[in-house]
Specification:
It comes from Chryseobacterium zhengzhouense. Keywords: Signal. This is DUF4369 domain-containing protein. About 25% of the residues lie in helices and about 45% in strands. It has about 140 residues and is α+β, with helices and mostly antiparallel strands. The chain has one domain: Beta Barrel (Lipocalin), CATH 2.40.128. Strands 1-2-3-4-5-6-7-8 form an eight-stranded antiparallel barrel. Strand 3 and strand 4 form a beta hairpin. The longest helix has 19 residues.
Length: about 140
Amino acid sequence: MKIITMLSLLFLSSAINAQQIIEQEKYQGTIDGKINISFYLKIEETGCPKVVASGVYKYNDNKAGNWILLDTTFSEKNQQYTFVEHYNTGIMLLKRGDDNLQGLWISPDGKKQLKVSLKKLKPTKAEIDKMEDELEKANYNANDC
C-alpha cells in the first residue's frame, strides 16, 4: 500500500508541475524599419495557474545567427510585454495584437529608442521545433553554471 501511495504522490506531483504550452509564435519584422529580425514567443501555463512568456530573437543579417535570450514580464490582460535582453543590451516594450507585435527597442542608457514592427507568421512544426531548440540553448548558455 505504501508503494502505491508513493507512486500516486509522484504522479500527482509531476502532473502539478507540468507546463502546458498555450502559444508558440514566430514573427518577422524590423527594428527601426531597416534591421531585419526573427522573433520567437512562447506562452505557457506553469500551474497555480500562472502564465509565463519567454522568447528569443536574432538579427537576420548576422552571419553567426545567434539568438538573444529575452527575460520577460507581461500583462496577460493587456497583452503588453517587457522583454529585457539577457545581458541587458536592450529592452523591448511590445504590445501584442491579433497578428503582430508593435513597440520600441530601447538601448540600456535610454538614449536610443527605435520602433519595432513584427508580423506573425504561420510556422511549420519543424520551424517551431528549431526555435524551441534555440530558446532552450539560449537558456542553457545564460543560466548554466
